[in-house]
Specification:
58% of the residues lie in helices and 9% in strands. The chain contains 4 helices and 3 strands; from the N terminus they run H-E-H-H-E-E-H. The chain has a 3-stranded antiparallel β-sheet.
């Protein structure tokens, strides 16, 4: 199996990509990350904008026009959607293997 060099996504990048599955600006992204993670992940502005820069370079997100010219709005690209799906599949495999290992040791 060929492993994608962009995987695994960091927890912050994973949640940011999920947050921009619908166009969102920085503050909304921060709120969505916290909501999606049930309060487990809080991202500071500096961390957020550094991550956004990297996600833009990787072409996982793109800037889009928004209602307010003062705010930059970002949206998930098809490549970004694919990388999230690949990471989800990677995590599902890990969870399945872990559950199998623990079940075998238990039984």
């Amino acid at each position: 199996m060929n492993r994608n060099k962009n995987l695994p996504l960091s927890e912050i990048n994973f949640y940011i990509l999920l947050a921009v599955s619908e166009p969102a600006h920085g503050y909304l992204i921060m709120q969505k990350v916290e909501e999606l993670s049930r309060g487990e992940v809080r991202v500071a502005a500096g961390t957020l904008y550094g991550a956004i820069e990297n996600l833009l370079k990787a072409r996982f997100i793109v800037p889009v026009d928004g209602d307010d010219n003062r705010r930059k709005v970002y949206s998930l690209t098809e490549e970004g959607r694919q990388i999230v799906q690949m990471d989800i599949e990677r995590m599902k495999l890990m969870i399945s293997q872990a559950e199998n290992c623990l079940q075998e040791r238990k039984g």
